[in-house]
Design goal:
Elements lengths: L1 H15 L9 H9 L2 H12 L17 H16 L6 E10 L10 E10 L8 E8 L21 H14 L7 E7 L7 H13 L2 E8 L17 E5 L8 H11 L6 H16 L4 E5 L12 H5 L4 E6 L12 E3 L2 E3 L8 H20 L5 E6 L7 E6 L8 E8 L7 E5 L3 E4 L6 E8 L12 E3 L1
Parallel strand pairs: 3-4, 3-5, 5-8, 6-7, 11-17
Antiparallel strand pairs: 1-2, 2-4, 6-8, 9-10, 11-12, 12-15, 13-14, 13-16
Length: about 450
């Protein structure tokens, strides 16, 4: 029986890749088309009109400052909730911080604007998060009174979160989705730290965090590269959480590039490019830009899978800059620099991934690779997931030097022998349901 199964798998392996077929879930495809550049533009214009959104700025002025901006986002989430059939609810999650001697110099009421789209399956405890940071800064991070438009950093990420909530709140998903506009990013990732600590303490089952920060403009200073067809996804390699405990296994199995964040990044690339035309998702193998950080990092540090999504070509004359003209160079993060078609595509890429993840069944359980004897084939086996109806599984294959999965083999069985040596390839298994939505991949452990 094993020999017959091996021959069948070999035949399936070669026939499956004689042609490339892009299969899109019609519901997700429809949602992607609903993402509106005009909607994103109206959100950006409103955010910029608050003058400044510095975390230390006024919280009492109804038209200016972080307080007014926070209340407006909250009001928009509440409007979206009216068409959600009672599944979307919003609140402002607050905590009081004391001066820290660094970037908080007064007692501070910090608030994240959170909208939760409740999953439809009571047995599905998974949570997927999309975030952007509502706050911004001038050249001096402590300047809380001067104007700071913050159109791209991070108005773009905030409005992407809002637009995803607008479109997705009209649909149902098995898992729960959280849309959050955090505060305090520029003061030291304060809002994301508060939320990730809460999640860890309360045992949230967070499967993925998509953090969007600076993703709406398409050209760089110095190099003058203009390109609105690529977006970057940053992901950590070695896990920041309990690295010492995991190091032996990582080293023994050669899994330096197969942590949870890196698997999520590969998923984001494949799914994003499947649903959004004329967009290449570029994987960057580091947690963030060189010596810099973002709101995904506090989640990574607590063991959650989290990635950062950022435009391909950053322009540093527009980040953390007072609006001015100096030596013939115009500085400032102005609304006029946003490419709304590019922002639409990047938002749609987020939506496609959130939807595909949240509609999918749980990942397969107890995925193992048989190592009881030396062989030039690889035998994988696993158990069906505990939650969700499935059609079958995808077995993923890539060479050890490949950045992303190269081959994808469908099976309805819970085992497969592949004509590929475990010395030369990496493998993983995904669940797939009737509408073609895949779970995150699971890398096999050692089985005997």
């Amino acid at each position: 029986m094993r020999k017959t199964f091996f021959i069948a798998a070999l035949f399936s392996f070669h026939t499956s890749f004689s042609q490339t077929t892009i299969q899109r879930d019609p519901e997700i495809e429809k949602m992607v088309k609903e993402v509106s550049a005009d909607s994103l533009k109206s959100y950006i214009k409103t955010l910029v009109a608050f003058g400044t959104r510095n975390t230390l700025s006024t919280q009492t002025d109804p038209k200016r400052g972080i307080g007014a901006a926070r209340n407006w986002v909250f009001s928009r989430f509440n409007e979206m909730a009216k068409t959600s059939g009672g599944r979307l609810s919003a609140f402002i999650d607050t905590t009081t911080l004391q001066p820290d001697g660094r970037r908080v110099d007064v007692p501070l009421l910090l608030g994240n604007v959170v909208a939760t789209l409740k999953g439809t399956d009571p047995n599905d405890k998974r949570i997927f998060i999309i975030s952007g940071h509502l706050d911004n800064m001038r050249s001096n991070v402590m300047d809380r009174t001067g104007d700071a438009p913050g159109a791209d950093d991070d108005g773009s990420g905030t409005v992407a979160v809002m637009e995803c909530a607008r479109v997705m709140s009209k649909h149902s998903f098995s898992a729960t989705i959280i849309f959050v506009a955090v505060s305090g990013e520029e003061q030291g990732l304060l809002g994301a730290t508060f939320m990730s600590e809460k999640a860890k303490k309360e045992g949230w089952n967070i499967e993925a965090v998509l953090n969007n920060d600076i993703m709406g403009s398409n050209n760089s200073n110095e190099t003058n590269i203009i390109n609105n067809t690529k977006v970057r996804v940053f992901s950590e390699g070695l896990p920041a959480y309990e690295t010492e405990k995991a190091a032996v296994n990582i080293r023994n199995l050669g899994l330096e590039n197969d942590g949870k964040a890196r698997q999520l990044a590969r998923y984001v690339k494949e799914t994003g490019e499947r649903y959004v035309d004329n967009l290449e998702v570029v994987l960057v193998y580091r947690n963030d830009r060189f010596l810099r950080g973002g709101d995904h990092t506090p989640y990574v540090q607590r063991g959650f899978a989290a990635v950062r999504i950022t435009e391909m070509n950053e322009n540093y004359t527009r980040q953390h800059q007072d609006v001015r003209t100096e030596n013939g160079i115009a500085y400032g993060d102005l609304e006029e620099h946003i490419d709304y078609e590019y922002l639409r595509k990047n938002t749609a890429m987020n939506l496609a991934n959130l939807s595909n993840l949240s509609k999918a069944a749980y990942a397969p359980d107890s995925v193992k690779m048989d190592v009881k004897k030396l062989s030039n084939s690889t035998y994988l086996y696993w158990k069906a997931p505990a939650v969700g109806k499935i059609k079958g599984y995808y077995v993923l294959v890539r060479e050890t030097t490949s950045a992303f999965w190269q081959k994808k083999i469908f099976t309805t069985e819970t085992e497969m022998r592949l004509p590929y040596s475990k010395d030369n390839y990496f493998f993983a298994v995904q669940s797939v349901n009737e509408t073609g939505n895949e779970s995150l991949p699971v890398v096999p452990g050692v089985g005997r």
